[in-house]
Each structure stands twice: as C-alpha cells, then as structure tokens.
C-alpha cells in the first residue's frame, strides 16, 4: 500500500475517533445535565419539605409540602415485656406515648404495673393487675383495651418491646449515656436478675440498661428517695427519662449508618400493629423533635392497705384526677399552642423592645431538681411576679438551676426572673424554632 493510501486511511480513522469522542462527550453532557436537573429537583423538594435532614427524609419517602399538614397526633401504647421467666411475660413497662408532627409536642404517660383492672378491689387477684393482661394470651389487645378504658384516649396502635430488643438496641447504638439517680444493689436468683449500678452519669450498655429499668428496690429494702418517687413511681420516672435519652442518642447523625442493624433488632424482638405506611409518614419529622417539648407524668392513684385488697398489692387509679391529667397532657397543649399563636400575631415579636413587659414573655419550667414539689413552687412564684408560664414538665437531673434565653430577651428581665426564683445561671441559646422565650431548668441547688 502506498504512502498516500496509508495517509488517507489514517485521516479517516482519526476522523472516526474524533467523531466517536464527540458523540461520547455529547452523551456525557446529556447525562450530566439530567443529573443536575434531578439533583436540582430533589434539592427543591427538600427545600419545600422543610430543608435539612427532615426535608431530605420527607422527600425520600415521597412527601410533598401538604403531607405533614394532613398528619394528626400519633398515639401509641408501649409495652416493655420481661422474658426471663419461661412462658411468663409480665409487662414491666406500660406507657402511653403521643407525638404531633405539626406542633412538635410529645407526651409520655406511665401506667403503674400494679394498676387494678378488676371491678372489686376487696377481692383483687394478681391476674387483674394490668401487667398480667399480656401474659394471658401473649397479645397486646387486652392491655390496650384496659388502657383505653382508663384514659379514654381511644389509642389504636401498640408497640411491644421485649427485653432482648432493649439490650440489643442500646448495644447497637454504642451504649446510652445516662445519669443513674442512686446506687442500685439487688439480686433475684429466681429471675437470674442481678442489679449492681453506681449513682452518677455513665455509659450504659444493654445489660446495664436492663438493670436500670428493672430496678425497684435494693436488697436491704431501700429504694428511690421520696422526693424522687419511691419504688414503682421512681422506677417509672427513671424509665421515662432513660427512654428520652435513648431517643435523643439514637437520633444522632452517626447512627444513620446503623439503621440496618436497628431495623434487624426491631424485626426480631418488637411486635407492633403500626403499618409501615403510617410509620414512614411520621419518621421524617421526628428527627427535628426537641426533647424540651416532651411532657411526662404518671397515672394518678393510690396503693390501698393490703387488708382492703385481699392481700394483693394493687394500684387504684383516681378517675377524677386521671380525667384532669389526660385533658392537660393530651388536649390543653394544643389549645395553648393556638392561643399562643393568636397572641403572637396580635403583639410585637420583638422581645428586646423597651415596651415588652413580664406578661409578654412566655416561660417554660422544667423540673430537674429531683423534688416534685419544686415545679409548682417556681411556677407560682413566676405567675405571682406577672410572668406567663405556658409550659411545664420534667427533665433529667440537673445540679444547677439554669435560665435559658431562647428569644433574645432583655438581660434586665432575665435578671428579674433570677431574683424572683432566687437562684439561677443565665445562659443564651437562641432558637428560632423555640415555642417559648425563656426556659428555666430547676436544679438540685433550688
């Protein structure tokens, strides 16, 4: 073949290669443009769904800007089941949990395990205690029916969490940091239960978490101090506060990569009638939940003398007080939210203005002192001084009383709050999403 022919062939091959390169460049450009458009659309959807982690999760599960608006309050019965005795599944933990994604408010109401569900306390039997209902048929429906009868809440969903689930979940997220309220020292060989924990903040693994939640009293008969809540009342408080920490620490960003392991635990050890389509609608908004908006309490009632209850230790709930508490926890909060919003729209939002008075400041009081009486004392002092207390609740034990400035309130007013309650460290932690101007955490120094 001559040089001229070879050159012509090389030119043709070169043109073909260039042509192919141009085609691939066009294809890559089209792919890049499609990806950019897709990312742009996704980013836009994330933005209109609230942005951040919430917006991203909401977009991934197919929500739009109207989905959350159409979601109502979710109420669930939570049952913690002890499985260390063969064929005996007693309910150690009974709680009603509610969550409203639109107001970002939640409630935990503890039901004492000895709550009597029969009709005649004078002839009470252990089988009529609410913690024994699940063990009859190993189903949650009887317990759910009893709780609905007691509370009037018409709860539809339940979640049954067995002991193994708690142990494995806590281990899956690397343990839970918690302030153990007292030294705990108890042994029961019949249940293979051995509880040995020291008081103070520490990292609890699954085994220690089980010890914490099952503790009622020590080997020598002592229990939680009266101001914390003796025996079952103290135990329920510890359970609520521990669950709060589990929620907070499970929701950490780094635990997203452990989601598969967490779901495996849930699939094996958790029983629920919550449909996946219901759960997925609420999950994106739970991640933005502020635990300061959680209210906790215990079903009100008394423990009668054994000679009046057939020798059986039972807890008789007070119907009138229960009705008032249910109204306060599950209904008045939404009314309060509406009233606050209405007032906010008719008054200035500028809390730094010189025209702002005490009655314009919304105050939240959280009790972390360990003494239940302190909450009402502080609330009464603030109201007596002219402040508007819109939220109350409990929180983890705090050593120092803290006055947190959430909405750039004038320093003179914060100092006045301190003077009114008599103690407190003033801190600034501005939050545009906060529903109150000032949060007061009552500490042990009160």
Keywords:
Aminopeptidase; 3 domains; alpha/beta; 446 residues; 6-stranded mixed sheet; 17 strands; Alpha-Beta Plaits; 5-stranded mixed sheet; 13 helices
General description of the model:
With 446 residues, the chain is α/β, with parallel strands linked by helices. The chain has three domains: 13-60, no CATH class; 71-333, LCP protein (Aminopeptidase); 349-442, Alpha-Beta Plaits (2-Layer Sandwich), CATH 3.30.70.2390. The chain has 13 helices and 17 strands. The strands form five sheets. Strands 9-4-1-2-3-10 form a six-stranded mixed sheet. Strands 14-13-17-15-16 form a five-stranded mixed sheet, with helices on both faces. Strands 5-8 form a two-stranded antiparallel ribbon. The model is unreliable at 30-61 and 338-355 (pLDDT under 50).
Write the layout of secondary structure elements.
Blueprint: H1 3-48, H2 52-60, E1 74-85, E2 88-100, E3 105-110, H3 133-137, H4 141-151, E4 157-162, H5 163-172, E5 176-180, E6 184-188, E7 193-197, E8 200-204, H6 206-214, H7 231-250, H8 259-269, E9 270-272, H9 276-286, E10 294-298, E11 301-302, E12 316-317, H10 319-330, H11 332-346, E13 362-367, H12 373-384, E14 388-394, E15 402-405, H13 411-421, E16 425-428, E17 438-442
The CATH level-2 architecture of the largest domain is identified as 3-Layer(aba) Sandwich
What is the CATH topology classification name of the largest domain? Aminopeptidase
Distance between the terminal alpha carbons, to the nearest Å?
103 Å
Query: Strand tally, please?
Result: 17
* Main sheet: strand order: 9-4-1-2-3-10
Net shape: globular
CATH class assignment of the largest domain? Alpha Beta
Report Rg: 28 Å
Mean pLDDT: 77
Indicate the proportion of strand residues. 15-25%
Q: Provide a count of the helices.
A: 13
